[in-house]
């Protein structure tokens, strides 16, 4: 048996990763789907589900049916394992939802399992449910505010929002402020249902009596049990900066193409301040933004221009929300959000992944028998990620689409080893991008002999 592999790039460039696994059987097989849900952080050996039972396999069948996880993705193979004794699916290593899926609302791991004698392939999806294992966190230990002594009571000062990398209700935050008669905490509704904490001045300040205040802001999530994080709010009382900077928008939106070179302009922010001199001079900076995002974007403190600092990849993350802070020379601030949608380019060729292959195949195998199982996927989205698969070459074989991106190669008619002892076909996977990207691999199927020809004398009679 021989397998040859080729990788090609479309006219527009891009990457192609190619692998193929082919499996020989003599019977029809239909792919099915199973879905389980487990909480993250389960220990190794924790039960995911009775896989064999859910597939209709009894304990007596397990040795012959050879139930196994068979996925092209190395990570998927590390996460789960199937017991040879009872056919149950178990956790094989620690699952951290935040490491696996980031801030995505949903998180799951998909893979295939194979059974033999006869062969069948099943698509399994395990949803990883969030547990409240992360506390809210602020980007810095101290928030510095400067408030003029002439600022009237009732004035509000936006405070940094904490981040919680958990999902769902575990990431919904409320805020508390340590008690002080000069200040209270109020909340401002933001886009998407978020709440911005604001410091409210309750009574006039007198710098000559007290020049600074230290308060503790606490962010509490909605998990059970709840988790919290704190930041020190240091307030310096100054003279007469009575106008904060104001952004022209509370939310800025932009679309950014992936693979832009570093230094490309994304958008320009604008905040104005009615004060004069240094009190009216505005500088821009990131607010509560993860370090990973700071590595991808930069902001000019003077012009408010946001530019790319690293390579954006739609397939890794397609949306970013940046918190931006404008600060004037007197220390007053305003905040806005920048919502960036990363647009996809067709930069990934389809990947033909190996599940299993066995050769040779007997020449008396019936028509319609499955001789190979393939997995084809494309990391792009939309039409760029829609893939069609075909066979190229003269052979009595057909390729049939199955669920979850799987394909089966089946016999289209009778095989005759005396006429052809092997068949060569090329599997071609092509996406619908413009220009289209494609990958291919050659499948060589050997045909083994069965005793289907009786001996024949060269002559009917001898004398």
TrEMBL record:
One of its GO terms (cellular component) is plasma membrane. Keywords: Calcium, Cell adhesion, Cell membrane, Glycoprotein, Membrane, Repeat, Signal, Transmembrane, Transmembrane helix. The keyword Protein transport does not apply. It is found in: Cell membrane. Residues 30-138, 139-247, 248-352, 361-457 form the Cadherin domain. The keyword GTP-binding does not apply. It is a single-pass type I membrane protein. Coiled coil: none annotated. GO terms for biological process: homophilic cell adhesion via plasma membrane adhesion molecules. Its main location: membrane. It holds the Pfam family Cadherin. InterPro entries: Cadherin-like_dom, Cadherin-like_sf, Cadherin_CS, Cadherin_N, Protocadherin/Cadherin-CA. One of its GO terms (molecular function) is calcium ion binding. Potential calcium-dependent cell-adhesion protein. May be involved in the establishment and maintenance of specific neuronal connections in the brain. This is Protocadherin gamma-B1.
